[in-house]
């Protein structure tokens, strides 16, 4: 995995796992790779992977069954989507609107492009 400088590596790992859950790679109540497996896969320090798993656990995305590993929470998709929506609305959208204003792009032009994707 190629990491970006903008965010801490543990958050990038958490984002990757979240995206895998959204994409259906891991289902509700399904076991995900162990911290050791994931740290080896991404070639990162195990403590970094632990931090990512702890973060996801605190967000309600995964849960730990002692001695069995980590599993996808039943409402993981809702937690991920809500968190991503908030981030989009708070960070991404204001920048998009700023760029639209600078470039003279009207909302109806965006609507037209959106409709092409449907």
From TrEMBL:
SUPFAM superfamilies: Winged helix' DNA-binding domain. InterPro entries: Tscrpt_reg_HTH_GntR (IPR000524), WH-like_DNA-bd_sf (IPR036388), WH_DNA-bd_sf (IPR036390). Keywords: DNA-binding, Transcription, Transcription regulation. GO terms for molecular function: DNA binding; DNA-binding transcription factor activity. It comes from the Bacteria. Residues 7-75 form the HTH gntR-type domain. SMART domains: HTH_GNTR. The keyword Acetylation does not apply. This is HTH gntR-type domain-containing protein. The lineage of its organism: Bacteria, Pseudomonadati, Bacteroidota, Bacteroidia, Bacteroidales.
